[in-house]
Amino acid sequence: MFMGEYNHTIDAKGRLIVPAKFREQLGEEFVVTKGLDGCLFVYPKEEWKVLEEKLRGLPLMHKEARKFSRFFLAGAASLEIDKMGRILLPQVLREFAGLTKEVVLAGVLERVEIWDKEKWNDAGRYDDMDEIAEHMAQFDFLI
User: pLDDT class for 136, splitting at 50, 70, 90?
Assistant: First the structure.
């Protein structure tokens, strides 16, 4: 399980240091793709295979299902960590998430999310959590 929040910077070549705790869990090769809410999703190979199977199960004749699959798969990249603990994020993914210099890597259960720091700060406002918690009951989620 991934958890925690780490602040890092992307260098001029698009390289990003991955926190040691995340490197251990990601393994030698993993997948980075477009994520929801304007961030990037990073999946270990095993978790990516689970997502692939779910996407395979979507109906091909359904226009939204095709678009949903395309969103996650077309921009996906298989990456490896270099000897310095860095990854080279593809330009198309950096542009999608608006990543320029300061970023936040957040562990979220089975994946890591990579956010532009300013977007993270905007998305990280939790003054509506009581209301959200009430709505979580529809998913049989209780704390």
Answer: confident
